[in-house]
Design a protein that fits this description.
By secondary structure, the protein is α/β, with parallel strands linked by helices. It folds into 2 domains: 177 residues, NAD(P)-binding Rossmann-like Domain (Rossmann fold, 3-Layer(aba) Sandwich), CATH 3.40.50.720; 91 residues, N-(1-d-carboxylethyl)-l-norvaline Dehydrogenase, domain 2 (Orthogonal Bundle). It has an 8-stranded mixed sheet with strand order 3-2-1-4-5-6-7-8, with helices on both faces. The radius of gyration is 22 Å and the shape is globular. It starts with 6 loop residues before the first strand and ends in a 7-residue tail after the last helix. The structure holds nicotinamide-adenine-dinucleotide. Nicotinamide-adenine-dinucleotide (NAD) binds next to helix 1 and helix 5.
Length: 321
């Protein structure tokens, strides 16, 4: 396998493919973009070069970014030509299995046999795309999040045949691009979208039941638990709140909403095992002595205080009419 990756081709120069290509070019990789035809690729390149100038002017990208991206990002070849010399090819075309199959077949045919192939699919299980790839040991999901230039997390999903060194090479690429890759199992929606869509589904039910308006739901999410999510995931938050407290709250939910919201076994077992979270040093995310607990609380307070400063500085997000 070609490790480490230096030449990248992104197929699909739309919203996500463009953002991925731009981010990797900025990180120093040599990147080509290819879309349905050369004209579409060149149009994508033009848009990305305008955008990088704007990002630099607004201080969102460091000084000199435009020059770096101009030097490293190119377009103007067919998909067949653009993938021929790449170490890593990321597919970012429409989320339509037939379209992805056709594009992955072309990539497989024209890429080097040792090139790694990733797909940016949001929801399609990797095993449903594997049949389109020649050499499934070099194929995996590499799911960037929107907007790709600014969101650091990337979900990775290996297929049954994906070689560990392929995953390692992609993790290395992501780390060099300042991203955090997390590998998850091959299920529809993976982790990010499964959680995000469940939140939206419950939020929708809340609005439909007349519990709160769309605006008030968004306000509550932003200003309460959403405020924490940039720093802590749900397990870390539960540890800080108290696992015993959470278990009791689930009882109320189960009584009101039935088994759908019953106390999860993981939580019941933890509490039965005497694990109450950071307050008694035994959490779902680890063991905490006095020193670690104090450091965590100090970090949390600083993080939330700074988050408050940032939100005051930015002011409210622009709204639709
Ligand atoms: N938009 C998001 O928020 C988001 C987030 C994460 C992942 N994704 C995933 O990223 C992928 C791309 O989504 P997007 O939002 O960038 O879509 P998009 O519509 O902006 O871009 C898709 C691009 O693919 C190109 N394309 C279509 N068929 C092609 C073909 N046969 N050959 C070459 N190029 C072709 C289109 O011309 C277009 O430029 C999808 O799999 C999507 O699920 C999207």
């Amino acid at each position: 396998m070609s490790i480490p990756i230096s030449r990248v081709t992104v197929v699909g120069a739309g919203y996500m493919g463009g953002g991925i290509a731009q981010s990797l070019a900025l990180a120093g990789f040599t990147v080509q973009i290819a879309d349905v035809d050369v004209a579409a690729s060149l149009k994508g390149l033009e848009r990305l070069l305008t955008e990088v100038q704007e990002f630099e002017a607004e201080g969102l990208y460091p000084p000199g970014s435009t020059e770096v991206v101009k030097k490293n990002l190119t377009a103007g070849k067919t998909i067949e030509e653009a993938v021929a010399d790449a170490d890593f090819i990321e597919e970012a075309v429409f989320e339509v299995p037939e379209v992805k199959h056709a594009v992955l077949r072309t990539i497989s045919e024209f890429a080097r046999p040792d090139a790694i192939i990733g797909t940016n699919t949001s929801t399609i299980p990797v095993h449903e795309l594997v049949p389109a790839v020649t050499g499934p040991e070099r194929f995996l999901t590499v799911h960037f999040s929107n907007p790709a230039p600014f969101i650091p997390g990337v979900e990775l999903v290996a297929g049954e045949a994906t070689k560990p060194e392929v995953i390692a090479a992609v993790k290395d690429l992501l780390a060099r691009a300042g991203r955090q890759g997390a590998q998850v199992a091959d299920t529809p929606g993976m982790v990010l979208n499964r959680l995000q869509y469940v939140l939206l589904k419950e939020a929708t039910a809340i609005v439909e039941e007349g519990v709160a308006t769309v605006e008030d739901v968004d306000t509550i999410v932003r200003t309460t638990f959403g405020f924490r999510l940039g720093f802590f995931g749900p397990f870390a938050i539960a540890d800080q709140a108290g696992l015993d407290v959470y278990a009791n709250c689930f009882t109320t939910f189960e009584n009101a909403y039935g088994p759908r919201l019953a106390t999860p076994k993981l939580l019941t077992d933890a509490v039965a095992d005497g694990r109450k979270g950071t307050k008694n040093g035994k959490g779902l995310t680890g063991e905490f002595d006095e020193e670690t607990r104090a450091a965590l609380i100090a970090y949390r307070n600083k993080a939330y205080s700074r988050m408050g400063d940032l939100l005051r500085e930015l002011g409210p997000a622009p709204k639709g009419a």
